[in-house]
Specification:
The complex is a heterodimer. Chain A is α/β, with parallel strands linked by helices. Chain A contains 13 helices and 22 strands. By secondary structure, chain B is of the alpha/beta class. In chain B, helix 2 packs across helix 8 and helix 5 (about 120-135) packs parallel to helix 6.
Chain lengths: ~450, ~325
């Protein structure tokens, strides 16, 4: 049986090549791996090896011949005793055209919504199992980690100062004492290394809770969060999942300036493969963290340093959880919708009170709770009722969570809108240090009121 | 040194040959436009992975770089499905979503196939962490290219592995070039195996063209790690015959250098040993050659005929 040796494509852009030199001649015996020719490509001259064995029956081009198309036969090898018909014009194999798949991201978002189990977010005012005692967000997070660690010994905590120091913000207080140093691990200050290590442990079946002292330091480890944790399930064709929670304070604290005050909510929300959660109260912090720890996917859990001391009642049932992907209607209203999350919920509530008192505007407040996947349905239902929307968040304005919401609402509820959507964000600058400038940088209650007035056409 | 049986010699020869034939065929399919993107071949380095293979337990884990085809073959994975991944088809190990650089087989404890230089090092360290956390006696073999040895996360991982005494065996495959930059132009201090010294990690340098040297070092190092002494580094001196990837003409090195290494071809060394020890005859070797060629030909055939993934697969495996 004879085999044709074809002009190879030696680079992704090569369409034809020049035969600079034959390293074999007719009658030679070649083995797989033998060098047979030198081909000049669009980039360089490279050697070509044989992959088949046999005797060279014919060389179809002379040395020096140029512009030979890729996949054209250049030589024939085979058994000399077999009679072969040498085709003058070898068929050029058609390169399969990449099928153009409609990459409709917006359809995709809708598909994901359908996948979410149809449970609504439990409402605190209807919760009959509410604690009489109020606890801080810090305690709520700690208690939930401890409860999940008691249930499943594959859950462990690692991060800087999480063990002996009891947590840089005391969120892991007492965990070392209860679970020991095998399950509560102080790491060196090497985010890139210990994040990669935790991701590897999650690939192998453990369920790490990784604390970033603040999310600002997650940038040291961003390659492992995006390239390793978020993409491996997909790249492995569904074989290897990564059940890990990355948690810690996100956004501005107080006067820690540009490098320690960044809000990463829209960064992480952009990434398929990640889920992103941003709790706003001790109650939802508890329910959401439990869902995050139980989730088989990587979850970014964005806390807020200023909220750590916020007190409120919680549901102490060790199985109480709030589903990922469900927003909460914090306050019902009919005149406009305020979509917000994390610390901006508090400012939005203050703004809503003033809007009622001073302008008789009844605002509906949606606390997103989860940023990815986004609870689009709840936002659209609200906008269809109030016909006006503002988004309030601490992140920078360019490509923020509010930008995506504005896009979805104009697409799916265009006819319901009585005014353009207005976004309230931080200033589009690095965070300044000075107290006065920091205040200017962050969204304030008055900014929210002004946006609400604008969508309501109140001067 | 561990005692090698006659069957071990045949196994080594067969696996090394299978890797070589596979890579040659992959190069051909790349040339035909059947394989796209980046494609990094293992030709010349076969003795490294096959030598290590001879010393392992099947429950040990492994993680490597994007030059991974040979590692998968050595792991006993099916060349048909590896090739089908290279051609981006649904029968590939990653169902056509990973490609040459991102292949995995969880059931065989093969954790990739990583496309980012150095990223597999903390990941492998984390897999070793899991073995220890679960109280298992297994180790994680973590392969590192010489190029990655200048990447910061490698040292972060070394520090953690030594600090927590993790059962990880680091194998530096020093093939002399990180893409087009030779080791001496990239690394200050050429003894890469000594780079764990600061963390108290022992290391040694081994001739990677000779599978018997690799086995000896891997056996010793594997025992050290398995006994709970913490990490160990083996630097294997090897050489890739081909360019960094398919589109690299490798003009940064001389033909003499390449030819020099080909004189110590790892497959020929095993073959010579087999003939010398009369483990097999020339005819028997020929039969292995023919069978291997046939197997790889069939793998290519399979990979070209396997269907492309369904369009609906675009949206699967994003979340579990």
């Amino acid at each position: 049986m004879s085999t044709e040796i074809l002009m190879p494509a030696l680079s992704p852009t090569m369409t034809e090549g020049n035969l600079s030199k034959w390293l074999i001649k007719k009658g030679d015996t070649v083995k797989a791996g033998d060098l047979i020719a030198e081909i000049e490509t669009d980039k360089a001259t490279m050697e070509v090896e044989a992959v088949d064995e046999g005797v060279v029956l014919d060389l179809l081009f002379k040395e020096g011949e140029a512009n030979i198309p890729v996949n054209k036969a250049i030589a024939i090898i085979g058994d000399p005793n077999e009679k072969v018909e040498v085709k003058k014009e070898a068929p050029v194999e058609k390169v399969i055209e990449e099928k153009k798949i409609e990459k409709n991201i917006e359809t995709k978002i809708e598909t994901k919504q359908d996948d979410i189990i149809d449970t609504t977010s439990p409402k605190i005012e209807e919760d009959t199992n509410l604690s009489s005692e109020e606890i801080t967000m810090r305690q709520a997070l700690r208690d939930t980690m401890a409860e999940e660690m008691r249930k499943d010994n594959k859950v462990f905590v690692l991060g800087e100062e999480v063990a002996e120091y009891q947590g840089a913000y005391k969120v892991t207080q007492g965990l070392l004492q209860e679970f020991g140093k095998e399950r509560v691990l102080d790491t060196p200050i090497s985010e890139h290394g210990f994040t990669g290590l935790a991701v590897g442990a999650a690939f192998k079946g453990l369920r790490p809770i990784l604390e970033f002292m603040t999310f600002n330091f997650s940038m040291q480890a961003i390659d492992h969060i995006i390239n390793s944790a978020a993409k491996t399930l997909y790249m492995s064709g569904g074989q290897i999942n990564c059940p890990i929670v990355f948690r810690g304070p996100n956004g501005a604290a107080a006067q820690v300036a540009a490098q320690h005050s960044q809000d990463f909510s829209s960064w992480y929300s952009q990434v398929p493969g990640l889920k992103v959660i941003a709790p706003s109260t001790p109650y939802n912090a508890k329910g959401l963290l439990r869902s995050a720890i139980s989730d088989p996917n990587p979850v970014i859990f964005l806390e807020n340093e200023i909220l750590y001391g916020l007190k409120g009642p919680v549901n102490n049932d060790v199985n109480f959880s709030i589903p990922i992907g469900k927003a909460n209607i914090e306050k019902e209203g009919k005149d406009l919708t305020i979509v917000t999350y994390s610390i901006m919920l508090q400012k939005s509530k203050e703004a809503a009170l003033k809007l009622k008192e001073e302008y008789n505007l009844d605002a509906e407040i949606i606390d997103l709770q989860t940023l990815r996947p986004l609870d689009i349905e709840k936002i659209l239902d609200s906008v269809k009722k109030t016909n006006r929307l503002i988004t309030v968040e601490e992140s920078w304005p360019f490509g923020s969570v509010g930008s995506e919401i504005a896009n979805i609402v104009q697409r799916d509820a265009f006819d319901y809108l009585d005014s353009p959507v207005i976004k309230v964000n931080s200033a589009d600058v690095p965070m300044p240090y000075s107290l006065s400038l920091e205040k200017l940088y962050l969204p304030q209650v008055d900014d929210i009121i002004n946006a609400a007035k604008k969508v309501s056409y109140i001067k | 040194m561990m005692k090698l049986q006659k069957a071990d010699y045949i196994k080594m020869y067969s696996f090394m040959l299978k890797i070589r034939r596979f890579e040659e065929r992959a190069a051909q399919l790349y040339g035909m436009g059947k394989i796209g993107g980046f494609c990094h071949l293992y030709i010349g380095q076969e003795a490294v992975v096959v030598g290590i293979l001879m010393t392992i337990d099947k429950n040990d884990s492994v993680v490597t770089t994007y030059r991974d085809h040979g590692h998968m073959i050595a792991r006993g994975l099916d060349p048909k499905r590896i090739m089908a991944e290279l051609t981006g088809r649904e029968d590939g190990y990653s169902a056509g979503k990973g490609g040459s650089m991102h292949m995995f087989s969880k059931e065989n404890n093969f954790y990739g196939g990583h496309g980012i230089v150095g990223a597999q090092v903390p990941i492998g360290t984390g897999i070793a962490f899991t073995h220890k956390y679960n109280g298992e006696k297994n180790i994680c073999r973590t392969y590192i290219g010489d190029g990655a040895m200048n990447n910061g996360q490698v040292f972060e991982a070394f520090n953690l592995a030594a600090l927590w005494k993790l059962p990880v065996l680091y194998i530096i495959e020093n093939n002399k070039y990180g893409m087009g930059t030779s080791v001496d132009r990239a690394a200050a201090g050429l003894d890469l195996y000594k780079r764990g010294e600061a963390f108290g990690i022992p290391g040694e340098k081994v001739d990677g063209m000779n599978v018997f040297s690799v086995i000896e070092a891997a056996d010793k190092a594997g025992k050290y790690v398995r006994e709970g002494n913490g990490p160990y580094i083996i630097e294997v001196q090897t050489y890739r015959y081909r360019g960094h990837s398919m589109s690299d003409p490798a003009k940064y090195r001389t033909k003499e250098e390449l030819d020099n290494y080909k004189q110590t071809d790892p497959i020929e060394i095993v073959k010579a040993e087999i003939l010398k020890k009369k483990i097999a005859t020339n005819d028997e070797i020929e039969k292995i050659n023919k069978d291997t060629l046939e197997e790889i030909k069939n793998a290519a055939e399979f990979a070209i005929n396997s269907p492309f993934p369904k369009d609906s697969e675009l949206y699967t495996d994003v979340y579990l």
